[in-house]
Amino acid sequence: MSEFSQKRLEHRIQEAVGQMIVSGSIKNPHLSPFASVTRVELAPDNTLAVIYVSAVPDNRIDPSVKALNSAKGFIQSRLGQVLRTKNTPVLSFRRDDSYREAEKVNRLIDEAMKEIDG
Asked: What is the domain range of residue 53?
């Protein structure tokens, strides 16, 4: 599969899972309605998809990831209907802390700029 096709499939997975969260299709009280899919990493052979999730407030990320992992069979079956591909990838949900890392880098840059200016 070409890189373009793989990126397009990752995007379709991201949209479909995000829509399931927003629409309330996934019935789990621990899943935050403000959870969002930030990115999807698809294995080169399309057998595995790692889906990164963030949530607001921050303390809702872990329960949301756990809820999504417990519902991954349901999500995978619905995803198979949406994608209409030969095989549906096995899903794995993980918390996404990239925004925290970005905040830390921004803070360090700001501190460095203050030292340079001051």
From this structure: 3-117
